[in-house]
Every structure is written in structure tokens, then in C-alpha cells.
Amino acid sequence: GSLSQQRFVTSVLQNCPEKVEAVCRELWMKSWGPEDSTTHSIEDLQLVAHRAGLSADETKLCIESMKSPAVKAQLKEVTEEAVDKGAFGSPTMFFSKGSHEEMVWGSDRFDMVANIYGL
Description:
Shape: globular
Structural class: mainly alpha
Order of helices and strands: HHHHHEEH
């Protein structure tokens, strides 16, 4: 499952929001990049955090916060929002241009994202 990764990203978003993009990138690379490795254990998440530039104190805070009611509530809220919008699978991404929102599913769809933005 991916619950630990989702809680970790949510914790980073709450505690170190400027580092969430780097954390997501490192999770992606560790899971689906050349390493093709797991990211389920605390040790995996510590490595991801280190590679993403979190300090030891930031990493400790984010890992400790993963089980907090605030992290759980925010993750539940975001998950419910995604389901309400029709999200399924991972990654499901929503992109807005003006008042138009487009849902894109799958990592092989980045060409569609470029098309949405006229790139």
C-alpha cells in the first residue's frame, strides 16, 4: 500500500511545504526510477527525506507527525475531494486553465498535460 507515503507527503506539506515537491520527486524516483525500490519503511522515508533536502530535525518532525490527527484529517479530506472529482488510480492529476479543469490519469500522459497548456 501507499498509506505511509501519503501520510509522509501530507506531513511534509503541513510542516515543510517548500520541500513537498522535492519529496514527491524523490518518492517517485525511488519507487519507479532506476532503483525500482520500496518506500514503505521509516528507513525508506528517511532516505527520501534526506535526498529531498530535509534536515534531520525536519525529517524527524515529519515522520513523527505522520500519525497525528491533523495529518490523518487532511489526507482524508484530500482523498474525499479526489474521489468526488472522479479520481481513480495513481497518479491522477487535475490541471486548470481558466475555468476549465482537466483530469489526467497515468504517468504516460504528460504529453496531454503539455497539450492542455499549449506547450
